[in-house]
Amino acid sequence: MSDNKVKYGLRNVHCALVTESGETVEYGGPKAIPGAVNLTLDASGEEVAFYADDQIYFEENTNNGYEGSLEIALIPDWFRKEILGDEEDANGALIENRDAKVKKMALLFEFDGDAKKTRHVMYSVLPTRPSVTGATRTATKEPQTETINIAARPALDTGDVKAKVLQSDADTYTRFYEAVYIRDMPTNSIKQEPGEYSLAAPDDVEIEVASTDNTNKVTNVLLDGVKVQGIHLTVIGFAITINKAAFDSISAGAHVITVYLLRGLPVNVPLTVITGV
């Protein structure tokens, strides 16, 4: 008998922005969507049958992905801006405009009741704008939730609809929510660490990463979780130079430079800042 019959307790829901250029697909870093309540998905496709010689001559089922809904306690403002296309004005108000374009996202999640602790990713999910609902207060308080209809389709570049990763997959599982898992995901690593950074004698920081996929490329560099602006950044292949101006406000101690690549997990490069030379 299977030990994985019942699934309950939707948890760890994340989404990652999908950017498509031609046949190239890039995934942003996954961001947590707190307060996930329920996820419902139904397979989408149809049976194609061709008759000849008084019988079914050819038959197949098409895979158009899934359609369903995601129920959330409250849709976060960052999701409304980054995925649904709302704009924030000078007064901090969120504006929904008729011309706003909803963006595709990858959807990552797991179920608490899954005995195998499986983690899932769907690669090309297009959400809809949620309905606006409300109810007056009664003697019994009923929490109001928000529901987004979603359509999960095959990824533009690979045709992959979804994937799942098991606990036995070690590092891929442990760091699942750091980057969108893709088929045969390459291994990325540090090739050259920076030396100590001296506040007394500031200089550019040079690092180099490596990847088992030599066609991979650096897409983003963060310093302590904050994006390093392009004016301070030079990238040639896997070699990265960060201009000393990016460290003007840094303090002594341990810091982390995070390098994101097109495919595979990000690389965390330690940086020690000292006061002396």
Question: Which keywords apply here?
Answer:
277 residues; mainly beta; 2 helices
Secondary-structure element series:
EEEEEEEHEEEEEEHEEEEEEEEE
**Stretches where pLDDT falls below 50 for ≥5 residues?**
none
Supply Rg. 23 Å
Helix content: under 10%
What kind of oligomer do you see?
single chain
Count of discrete domains: 2
Total E-strand runs: 22
Largest sheet: 9 strands, antiparallel
Structural class, from secondary structure content?
A: mainly beta
Compute the number of helices. 2
Query: How far apart lie the N and C ends?
Result: 65 Å
Describe the global form.
Answer: globular
Mean pLDDT: 87
Description:
The chain is mainly beta. The chain has two domains: 10-178, no CATH class; 188-274, Immunoglobulins (Immunoglobulin-like, Sandwich), CATH 2.60.40.10. It has helices spanning 77-82, 171-174; strands at residues 10-21, 24-27, 31-32, 36-43, 47-52, 55-61, 66-72, 87-88, 94-95, 105-111, 119-127, 146-153, 162-165, 188-192, 197-198, 205-211, 218-223, 226-227, 233-236, 239-242, 253-261, 267-274. Strands 1, 2, 3, 4, 7, 10, 11, 12 and 13 form a nine-stranded antiparallel β-sheet that branches. A five-stranded mixed β-sheet has the order 15-22-21-17-18, with no helix packed on it. A four-stranded antiparallel β-sheet has the order 14-16-20-19, with no helix packed on it. A hairpin with a 2-residue loop joins strand 19 (233-236) and strand 20. It starts with 9 loop residues before the first strand and ends with a strand.
